[in-house]
Fold this sequence. Notes:
The protein has 227 residues and is α/β, with parallel strands linked by helices. Helices cover 57% and strands 11% of the residues.
Amino acid sequence: MTEKDIICDSSAIISLTDSCLAHVIYFLKEKTGVKFLLPKSVVYECVEKPLHIPNKDYRFSALKIKDMIHDGILETVDADVSRGIAELQKAGNSVFFARGRPIQLIHAGEVEMLALAEELEVKNVLMDERTTRLLIEAPLNLKEHLAKELHVNIMVNNSSLQRMQELTRGISVIRSTEALIVAYGMGFLKHFDDIEKDVAEAALYRLKSAGCAISFKEIEEYMKGVS
C-alpha cells in the first residue's frame, strides 16, 4: 500500500453511485494510480446485502459497485483486524455519555475501515458519514451537535477520547464531494465546455441529496474556490 491509497466506507461509494457519479472513482484511479480499497463489511453492506433482500431500491448501486469491483476499480481487502476493531469499538463507543449511558457512535463498517487503515498504514479514508468523521476530526463539535440533537447534557470520557485520537492519528477523511472537486480540477468535467462549473455545482448538490454530510455553505465555498 502507498500513502495515497484510500480505504472506502459504504457511505461515499453509495453517494457516488446513487448520483451516477461512479466514474469519479474510475477517473481518479486512471489519473493518479490510487488504489480504492473496500473492507469485507463494506462489500457486504454495499453489494451482498442489497442483492439478497426483497427490497429492490438499492440494487442499482449494488450492481454498479459490483461492476466496479469486477473491473478492478475497487479492490476488496481481507485482513485480520479483529484486535483493531475491538479497540476502536471500545474507545469510540465510550467517548460520550448521555444520562449516564454511553452513546453508540460508530458501527461495523466504519470500525472495520478504520482498523484496516491502521493495519495497512493507509492514511486516507473515503467517507460521507458525519458522526465518525467528526469523532476523528472535531470531537468537541460532535459533542455540541449531540447535545442539540438529543436535548441533554453530554459528558466526555477523556481517556476514551484520548485513546480514539491515538488510534486515528494521521487519518485524513475525504468526502465524495471532495473527490469530485479534485477530479473536476483535473479535468473530469471538461467535456461539458462552457457549463463545466454549473455541472460541478449541480453534482455537489446531488451528492448532498444522496447522503453526503456537507452544508450549503461548504458548497458555496467550494464553488468560489474553483475556476
